[in-house]
């Protein structure tokens, strides 16, 4: 077969790695202190000194966007990890054992899905109060159902395969079946879900922060920056623009990545 | 001499793959006469289905006919425009596929799917179309045709679905039907029913059929003449009885001898070493040379000319060319 | 002296059908319905039938890949259900299965070497050196060489894949192998290679085969005895020579007539209708809906098994002393 060339996949990789590099740089270096205020230089237009201008407190927007990328990645990675680990365990047990185990877990997942994701997150935050950690927990819980369902279906699918039956016939136990036979085959659909959930988590975090329910000051967050920029949309449009672009890029990058992964997988199958 | 319904002359088909162009069919020539069933046999990857797709102009996007002529009643099909094609497909030439479930539209009733063909190719009224459809359904062995008219494909068994597919292929009274492994997906007793149906069609309708199969039992049952294909070439052709009782090409011989049956019980089965070469593995000369037990020196260099054995029985093998050593 | 290696007694396997509504009654598909037979050591026993006849389920029941609804499986006289976990694992070394679709029966993410090593690892057989040798020797047994060790299943042809599947089945030195349509997906010339290989291995390692297939030519060539299944029941069982040449049950008769030669065309029997739904099988004899000899008794009572010569058994009212209407020739 011809070697597949998935252009969106490479664009996705490109965007994501670019932002990753930006995030890594920002840990050690930003052009200005992202929290240094300068009341004489509020809402300055882009210049050599401040390539993306300054905000309503005179802080350098470029530095804040760079710093914000850290928050975005931390929240994305942690929330996805929580969702992935719990969702995977739930989905794998439901899919592998079937019967009443599946029945109980599936109903639980259905119940979670009955709430719109963002509403669930808001509810959790309302109970546990705002802040970075709680935002991560809320977003992590929000992404459990999708991981659980994907894992469950691939476990159910591969459990029926002849190579699994042949291995059972050779005396293999559950642990061997799960880790050697099902897991390696279930990884690629899960990777797609990871990429999608990542962008979903970032988008939701921005939404929550925009509502003031997410990351609290002084931690910089793109969503909150967007909210802060809103009153100045006419006087300092670059503020809204650059924050919006940052969010869009990251979400787009992960979505393209997910699409590309899915295409590759479909071609193999 | 009768004029053939369909004749193919020196047709080459190639695939455009990312790393180059590969010949999939080479020098295919054969004719189908009125009221004749021609079988095409060979293993998977030999080009049986590709041949039928070329005839119907439904080759995959990356494949094309490089060379040759496909004549349907003196019209060269290769020069035909898409509109004329659609006129011919379904009315003059029609196709029956292996998997009835995928050949039928799951969202339309079977009656509608059959009468659809009439709507496209005739000016009959709605009522006559329905009448014709129902009588066609009865002809293909669906006795409860009136009841089944409004059912959906998934409500029918595999055998009944295949009967519907056959009814769709027959309703416009085509001159030639191409059936690509039409019984392979069916159970033994259902396969027997469908073969019986084909025999009746041949008897009463006088439709010509190209019957593609890998199963010699089925071929023997239904065909008058048979073409044996190997790696994109027709290596032997002739009447079914002649080919089965007196195969000449080493590949045909090997194929027939390797079929197990109770008479060979206890014996080691004859086998052909190796496997069919893939598109990219094909080399010059006779494609079978690598697997052939009676290979001559010339076989790897040159593809043999066709040799007439007896009547319509021809074979492409150096063993039968003048000057070749008589090793058999 | 040959004795029974595997004995099935009155096997039933019902699958619960998913209920559409909460108020629906539980419905069962009777995949296997009262099947008994025994496979003798060293023989090839053929199980034929169409899709939905339950033949594959029988194979999986023997290997304990699915649980039984009723009945018992005995291996060398011992009830397999009574095995402890330890015994069961040991027993699994002796019974193996080869599936139809060589694409689905090998893990696509593992190399041939890994696949062949797995059974040895599971049973902690020998040291690294022993395992390596064993894998190479088994590869040789199935006609492959060490160049295959690092290849993945998708790099192999159908025949090669099936050889790997066979290798992984024989690597533990089993006594009994279920071959579930093991050659059906292959081209004729490759099929002949695999059949020869199976025969060769049988001789070399004194293997016993349960050969499940819908291809009557293959079964007649390969097997010593044959059982014909219809809708989860065995309708006829006997030596290949007897059953193949003169089947008694009307279903077996029709089945075997489909592979008759050209010159016997007029003897061909074409059955009418389709296989009934296994979830709702006919009353009495399951075949009466398609049988041209069907009598009143067939619609009501299930026929008992009658014997012909020796081991040839048939379940059909035609051969019951009381209501025989047809000459047996």
- How many helices of chain B does DSSP assign? 11
Question: What quaternary form is this?
Answer: heterotrimer
Give the percentage of residues in beta strands of chain B.
Answer: 15-25%
Structural class, from helix and strand content of chain C?
A: alpha/beta
Task: Give a structural overview.
Chain C: This is ABC transporter ATP-binding protein. Chain C: One of its GO terms (biological process) is transmembrane transport. The complex is a heterotrimer of chains A (269), B (328) and C (329). With 269 residues, chain A is mainly alpha-helical. Helix content of chain A is 74%, strand content 0%. Chain A has helices at 7-28, 61-97, 99-114, 117-128, 132-159, 162-169, 174-210, 222-229, 237-268. The longest helix of chain A has 37 residues, at 61-97. Chain B has a single domain, classed as P-loop containing nucleotide triphosphate hydrolases (Rossmann fold). In chain B, a hairpin with a 2-residue loop joins strand 9 and strand 10 (233-239). In chain C, a hairpin with a 2-residue loop joins strand 4 (70-75) and strand 5. The two termini of chain C are 32 Å apart. In chain C, the strands form two sheets. Chain C has an eight-stranded mixed beta sheet, with helices on both faces. Chain C is an alpha/beta fold. Chains in contact: A-C, B-C. At the B-C interface, helix 8 and helix 9 of B face helix 6, helix 7 and helix 8 of C.
Could you name the key traits of this structure?
heterotrimer, A: 269 residues, mainly alpha, MetI-like fold, 9 helices, B: 328 residues, alpha/beta, Rossmann fold, eight-stranded mixed beta sheet, 11 helices, 31% helix, 23% strand, ATP hydrolysis activity (chain C), ABC_transporter-like_ATP-bd (chain C), nucleotide-binding (chain C)
